[in-house]
Amino acid sequence: MIKKYLSEVNSTNTYAKEHIKNIKDKTVIYTSHQTGGRGRFNRVWVDLGDENLFLSFVLKPSKDLKPVYSNLTQYTALKLAKTFEQYGVSPKIKWPNDILIDGKKISGILAESVMSEGILKGLIIGVGLNLNANKEDFAQIDKVVTALNLEIKKAVDKKIFLNKFCKNFFNDYENFLEHGFISIKSEYENYANFIGKEVTIKNFSTTLKGIAEKITDEGAIVVDGQEFLTGDVI
Asked: Can you give the CATH number for the domain in which 60 is found?
């Protein structure tokens, strides 16, 4: 694993895409200040200050796309939940990859791939983390959110958090690539906050309200008998 620190950047994912040719496999690009962060479906990710963390894992596992890569955000969410748990909180995962603490969002994950002439140049997993913030900072955000320092009542050392998260991420990474989502399914379900509950799921073409029945071996959510591989529980 290689770590690369940037004092300021538009977004770590954008930087990774622009420099993908020269970035080695298993590189972690991180910063404390992002000027143009975004999440899934091009949502804006608000920068809450220098004591927070934005990072991208740059991965080059093969030259072609494999089905397991679509589950990398769920793998990342699981490893992130386990990292938060080391701080004494009880994180939950909202399908597919949002981390909630007491129902409040604390992180965002965005996966992107870089292709050229049919060849996979790299996978980029971007993560935005609210580690240190004041409640007043959240006035500019239209969702219910939190920061780790507010939950544990003390400041969080972002470098220590980064080291813990990276260690957790790469601990089972090769096994996950080999065996897929089923290798983490039971652990993922332990953190899931939605099984058996009424949810609203939305993707590019459908919005459905119903009971979340289960997670499949491929990581899809089943709502009222309908299987969704993409989308968000909202």
From this structure: 3.30.930.10
Structural domain containing residue 76: 2-193
Sign of CA dihedral 17, 23, 28, 30: negative
* Tally of domains within the chain: 2
Host H or E run for residue 27: strand 27-31
Identify the DSSP state of 23: P
pLDDT tens digits along 116-133: 998 999 999 999 999 998
Q: What is the largest CA-CA distance in the chain?
A: 50
Query: Which stretches of the chain score pLDDT less than 50?
Result: 39-44
From the centroid of its chain, how far is CA 95? 11
CATH code: domain of residue 213: 2.30.30.100
